[in-house]
Write a structure and sequence with these properties.
By secondary structure, the protein is an alpha+beta fold. About 55% of the residues lie in helices and about 15% in strands. It has seven helices and five strands; from the N terminus they run E-E-E-H-E-E-H-H-H-H-H-H. The chain has helices at about 45-50, 85-110, 115-125, 130-155, 165-180, 185-205, 205-230; strands spanning about 1-5, 25, 40, 55-65, 70-85. The longest helix is centred in the middle third of the chain and has 26 residues, at about 130-155.
């Protein structure tokens, strides 16, 4: 199975191509990655890292194609199933990403609970999306940002470590609540990968190999979370 995210109206984020579920489309011309053809990814998070849309589509492909590690472009494609991807899904995703690296920050600063409190504020918002909980998440987001800034300052004056990336991931989770920003999830997820890569480098003293392994492991976890989350999503009912 392959995936792509689409914007409102089942339109592609770039170019505004409008899709209909079940209908095959064929691109006429030379394929070019990120420029020409129909794009998708093997994993859901991989697709999300390129487009943060309101719909998640499972796609079927055939014909000529070009592939890279996290994206593909095909000559022919059709949507086989479409899920609604809402703000709450962004928040849940950001929370998961942030929790992946919370221990990195807390091992460095065990007395600083601001990142943890930001995550918990976001979780309370998920359970009860009231204005009060949203405001609390916004306040926690500001505190988490302060923690991230402090960690970055400390890292700049000592040995480089992953604490800033970890704190920023938590900050981004609260940001997703406070501002309903889909891209905050991607920022959190990138911070997860950065934190893991930095931690692996520090532990193994092997630059490229350790970082690549860390990124691959984190991306696998993020894609697995997305795949498991499919059962929580509403399937779009369409009329072509």
């Amino acid at each position: 199975m392959k995936y792509k995210f689409l914007k409102k109206g089942l339109k592609s984020a770039y170019g505004g191509f409008k899709w209909k579920v079940g209908q095959w489309y064929e691109y006429e011309g030379k394929l070019e990655m990120c420029q020409r053809g129909f794009h998708c990814s093997k994993g859901i998070y991989q697709a999300f890292s390129f487009v943060q849309g309101e719909f998640l589509a499972e796609v079927e492909v055939k014909g000529k194609h070009l592939t890279e590690e996290n994206k593909e472009v095909w000559e022919k494609m059709r949507l086989t199933k479409v899920y609604k991807w809402k703000k709450i899904d962004n928040v849940l995703f950001a929370i998961y990403a942030a929790r992946l690296v919370l221990d990195i920050f807390e091992k460095k600063y065990p007395e600083d609970k601001r990142p943890r409190q930001a995550i918990e504020a976001a979780e309370r918002y998920v359970k009860s999306p009231t204005k009060k909980n949203k405001d609390a998440a916004y306040a926690a987001r500001a505190a988490a940002y302060a923690a991230a800034y402090a960690a970055a300052y400390a890292a700049a004056h000592a040995a480089a470590d992953a604490t800033y990336a970890a704190a920023y991931a938590v900050y981004a989770a609260a940001y997703a609540v406070a501002h309903a920003a889909a891209y905050a999830v991607a920022h959190a997820a990138y911070a997860v990968a950065d934190a893991a890569a930095d931690a692996a480098y520090a532990a193994a003293y092997a630059a490229d190999a350790a970082a690549d392994a860390a990124y691959a492991a984190i991306y696998k976890k993020l894609d697995k979370w997305c795949l498991n989350h499919l059962k929580e999503l509403e399937v779009l009912k369409w009329k072509n």
